Amino acid sequence: MTPLRLVVVDDHPVVRDGLRGMLGTQPDFEIVGEAASGTEALTVVAAVRPDVVLTDLRLPDPSGGTLIRLLRERVPSVQVLVLTTHDTDSDVLPAVEAGAIGYLLKDAPREELFRAVRAAARGETVLSPSVATLLLSRIRPSRPLGEARLSAREREVLALIARGRTNREAAADLHISEATVKTHLLHIYAKLEVPDRASAVAAAFQRGILS
């Protein structure tokens, strides 16, 4: 299996070293470059053309949404996964609008980070729960608690997804088929009026369905 090619962008050397060491424990990851500024990131990514760029938001110029937009424009095949300590409107919204595939906080468990990198490489959106909740609150007002009537099984599926389980893992945990999990997810999306897994989890926390 060809390893996923990664570039790490952060202006703190200790953070880059830590990420390189952590990501390097995974046999399907290969660190092919790193950068300490936006300008350096653009140069490195253009040269090595990785699958995923993991980047902080607040870097020497350019940073944030501007850097993400330029990365996506210059190397359209790359997926940008934000890894930062900031989850305010002024940070999250420009990053997502600029084309970031995912947005994680630096206190995320390492297994969550590993899953996020793999999901980003597949083109799947990955958001930390607090970020998903923020985005959802910006596009839809809060609903009364319990308005969405999820079945007991749908709640079980949603709870597993919220803990980061894949469809296959959720199916194994519940002793049902992967196709059945997908069907439950489609019903959940329809009931919560959301387009994807991250939004479903955010909506469930926001409305008190999950705690």
Tags for this entry?
2 domains; Arc Repressor Mutant, subunit A; 211 residues; single chain; Response regulator receiver protein; alpha/beta; 10 helices; 6-stranded parallel beta sheet; transcription
Task: Give structural notes.
GO terms for molecular function: DNA binding. This protein is α/β, with parallel strands linked by helices. The chain has 2 domains: 4-137, Response regulator (Rossmann fold), CATH 3.40.50; 143-206, Orthogonal Bundle (Arc Repressor Mutant, subunit A). It contains 10 helices and 6 strands; from the N terminus they run βαβαβαβαβαβααααα. β1 (4-9), α1 and β2 (29-35) form a beta-alpha-beta unit. The radius of gyration is 18 Å and the shape is globular.
Task: Please write out the topology.
Layout: E1 4-9, H1 13-23, E2 29-35, H2 38-48, E3 52-55, H3 64-74, E4 79-84, H4 89-98, E5 102-105, H5 110-121, E6 126-127, H6 129-139, H7 152-162, H8 167-174, H9 178-192, H10 197-206
Parallel strand pairs: 1-2, 1-3, 3-4, 4-5, 5-6
Helix pairs in contact: 2-3, 3-4, 6-10, 7-8, 7-9, 7-10, 8-9, 9-10
GO molecular function, one term: DNA binding
Organism: Saccharothrix espanaensis (strain ATCC 51144 / DSM 44229 / JCM 9112 / NBRC 15066 / NRRL 15764)
Domain Response regulatory: 5-121
